[in-house]
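I have been asked to look over a protein record a colleague put together. This is what I was given:
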Amino acid sequence: MPRADFYLIAKPRFLTEPLRLVCELARKANDAGLFTLVLARDQAQAEELDELLWAFDDDAYIPHQIAGEDMDEEEALVLIAAPGTDAPARPLVINLRDAPWMGECQRVLEVVPADPEAREPLRERWRQYKDAGYDLSKHDM
């Protein structure tokens, strides 16, 4: 059964920079050797995340790249995909887009902003995953 984990932003270090949480999740996936697909909201967010993954921690190197920019993308543990980009299926998906990810994967991670208005659509997304048979869990970050 696929699994969906919702990460609710609450800690001060993630409030102003929610992509830092994405970097932390990518680091954990990398440390576990999990091939991960990050679904960016748009090309600008994909590029911002690419830059942040290089710089967010001096002690961590996370092999990553933006899908479609290099022929060796299957070797990168973390692949960042903007909308409209073909990207291979990966066991772990970090979804930053506005719609739930119902594609092939074992686990999908959803980052939930601290803003109460922004959380409402994610409540609906929770119901959509539940209706699709996903095992659900919530984590306060």
Notes: The first strand starts at residue 3 and ends at 8. The chain has a mean pLDDT of 91. Helices lie at 12-15, 18-31, 43-55, 116-131. The chain has one domain: 3-140.
